[in-house]
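Retro notes
What went well: the complex prediction finally ran end to end.
Inputs used:
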Amino acid sequence: MDKKAWIKYLMLTLTVVLGIIATNTKFAAASEEPHYVITTDTTYPPFELQDKNGKYVGIDIDILKAIAKREHFTFKLVPMSFNSGAQAVLSGQIDGIMAGMAITPARKLVYDFGTPYYKTGVITAVAKNSSIKSLNDLRGKTVALKTGTGAAAYALTIQKKYGFKVTYFNDSNTMYNDVALGNTVATFEDEPVMKYAIQNGVKLKVLTKPANSGYYGFGVKKGHNQALIEKFNAGFAAIKKDGTYDKIVAKYIGAEESTFAGSAKVNNSIWGLLNQNKSQFLAGIGQTLMLTILGIILATIFGMVIGLLAIVPNKISHGFASTVIYIFRGLPLLVLAFFIYIGIPSLTGHKLSALFSGLLTLTLNEGAYIAAFVAGGLKSVDNGQMEAARSLGLSYWKAMRKVVLPQGVKLMVPSFINQFIITLKDTSILSAIGIIELTQTGTVIISRNSQGFRIWFLVAMMYLIVITLLTFLAKWADKRFGNN
Amino acid sequence: MTAKVSVKDLHKAYGDNEVLKGINLEVQENEVVVMIGPSGSGKSTFLRTLNKLEEPSSGEILINGFNLVDKNTDINKVRENVGMVFQHFNLFPHLSVLENVTLAPVELGKLSKEEAKTLGMQLLAQVGLAEKADAKPTQLSGGQKQRVAIARALAMKPSIMLFDEPTSALDPEMVGDVLQVMRDLAEEGMTMIVVTHEMGFAKQVADRVVFFADGYIREQGTPEEVFNNPQDPRAQDFLNKVLNV
């Protein structure tokens, strides 16, 4: 109602937004020891998995920790799908990747690897009750591969010979389930990982002997972070020599997953799952809400500005606004997120935090939708309103603000509420760039306990509850402030 | 004495379609000029060029001595002195009746909120709608809306009032009240330019009647001259049709 109070609110929210972004980017500079950001796979046991407290452990993680301690550096672990993590390293967003990454000639062209740390080979696995006896039986059938992995690359080299079709997954757990359920007939996976999974209850069996053997390596972008590689190699030599490495491997290989991830007999009822994972769910909801609310605020500001530019009688601003709307409404959110998070840093050489990239993605995409209905709403206000206000001597912008906007905004309220709900749902797509919001939280928990149905049910309920609350809030705000 | 409004050789075209083909007109202070003519003759377009709601293609327009064609003229300043009343009222539906009247003087820093309220109530009383001050425009009849629109225009204390077919969108029984308000204004000495089809009003109130046809002013003079003894054949034809129904 009072315009000064309104501006104060706006300034306050802007300050909060900028503050959060600023503290987020400052994080890295806080420590005195060199600090690195290192990515790992969301789920790749026994190399990376979550323990019962949701902390990442595994051969990769324990090796990294031991080396960091010896070589005096700190690191922030960013679990992401393997493929996104691998790209994030190449774009300079992330310093290194420790994710059971096989050293291949193709990868050597773009990554520098540390000392090979684990010998591996690719095996083929099929469902336990499968009638497939050899690779020859795969002809005409579909196999499941994990995007960007060495195993997938190997599978493609023999695809012609055996005549199978392929489909891709982003995490191992979903891929195994797909094969076990019979949607796909087989999968190609690294030997230690596959064996570990079978040992821990995945209903698959091994079909072939290890092929294409090679080594896992710790990778950085070629020509970058050489100090990190040197530290890794020095530290690796030391832990190999003093037996720490062997202890770590022995601890995971052949061990039951329950040793780390908690007993399989834990309460797997919905209520039990909710209780065990309470803190993770809360953190996920918090992240989702934060992205949604900041995203909505920023997208609304951006959308209002572009929407106004789209209707002012000026060809340049009109053309500019239409182009912005066309581009950002036309791009799939996922493509935009990858482009900002992975593409822009490759061009500029400056890192963008995942959170910043995510918010920017939401602002541009949701903002473009908002701009479109803002422009539409303002255009649907009768032109006579502008003429009457101008004829009284009001300037264009004063007439816009006092006469056209208040009427237009009222027409836009339903669209705004709709867009808020869409924004909330769209935040789930940002899990792809490693933001652990609610959806990614679900993926991560399932990678630990394999309770797919129940966890997705819980996640779905949480989204519905949050959406219901947000809708109530928006309707209340409309009643309270809209009809003054 | 300089004219309040002085228009020389005014042309206005939309693409190839020329709707004003060289208009010359002077309006003196306190004068009431009523413009009549068939639909599409250009009289409304002409009226709208006088506060630059339409951009003239060529020619000269002086309003209170301000040159409207000059790019350096602050059109907002000119408009503060030129009130306009529209055929479709164009009241602001999100504001109350009183707020419609007080918006411009307050926003433009002419009056404080309190002063504007006092003036607004005076003006609403003048148009007979003081009791509707807190109503929303949607609660008013067409005639009441138009009287509020007149009060809104008067709140800027203009020295010229433009009326663009102010009664054309009204039910017949509403027309009288609006015309009465306009008649009162004329008697108080307001300089008025009125586009209308109300021939009775023209006869009774106009100092001068101007007849438009095909983008030209074909005839002008006192109401007696134009209505009783028109010289132009188009004017004779038009008046014959509208007066002898």
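What we learned: The beta strands of chain B are 5-14, 17-27, 32-36, 58-63, 66-67, 82-85, 160-164, 191-195, 208-213, 216-221.
What to try next: split runs per interface for comparison.
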